[in-house]
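ENCODED BACKBONE
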Amino acid sequence: MTHFIQDWLRLRLRPTFGSRMVIGVPYSWLLVLFLIPFFIVLKISFAEQEIAIPPYSPLWSYDADMARATVHLSFVNYQDIFVNFWQTLKGEFNPFNLLVKITGSGSLKETFASWGVLSETGNNIYLKTYISSFFIAIVTTLLCLLFGYPIAYAIARMNPKYRNGVLLAIMLPFWTSFLLRVYAWMGLLSTNGIINNFLARFGIAPLDMYYNTFSLLLVMVYAYLPFMVLPLYTQLIKLDSRLLEASADLGAGPIKSFWTITWPLSRAGIIAGSMLVFIPAVGEFVIPELVGGPENLMIGKVLWNAFFDQNNWPQASAIAVIMVILLVIPIALFHRYETRELEGEAS
């Protein structure tokens, strides 16, 4: 009887042709569109810049006379990324340096300097760019969550007759070119733009809303807000309203019911939406280039300069490899969280 059960389980768990196809399609997609390009970029990152086509040195050479192959690996590109690493990191994360950087106040800088609390900042432009990119991406994600959660909650609790129309309105901007939408914001926020021209009629001086941190975060939140709303909506729509009714019957108020029932049950949507916003926001190029300003240098601009202005493909490849490795960490944590959630539901 035991052998019969083991044989039945072995046949039961054997993957069929259909299951192989379902599993194989995403893995093939991952192989063709991520792993192969990533290993090509990884290979270029160990080369050296040359005036040639392609503009980098080969990684190996073969001597026919000696019948010997030689591998040429250069780590200078990674060395440039990590030069003055700890000194730059210490200066960037010093709260007094950070406060002076955010406010841009010269008097505050002189005051902190007299106190001796300012630390010398290193000149590692790559590390500064990584920190700036992650900081802007985190703030964008938090703002999208702050504005997106009430929107998703309202849609989930809305009359089903109007729900599809509101969801369509959320996705409607995707029907327009992304570049065109950013240019529209430039026309709205510039010094001679629509908003400032309207305020000028009431005697209000032009507001500095363009080509700075405010315009960068505003357009970033506008562009990525739907990526936060839709995952949250898919979780909140599945929330059983009887749980909230039971919570109210037991004496819990609306705020306590939200933090003890609604928020935990929507945690998967929060994490999924945060990943969908954070990952592309880190490498954003168009928005920082058009509305970000010189003080908001992000990694996308650095990659563009290295590839196209400096024609330094190995350096740009090394920067991209480090960025991919840094982004794999939150993805792996999210996958681990999902695995634990599924194991908990199964048990």
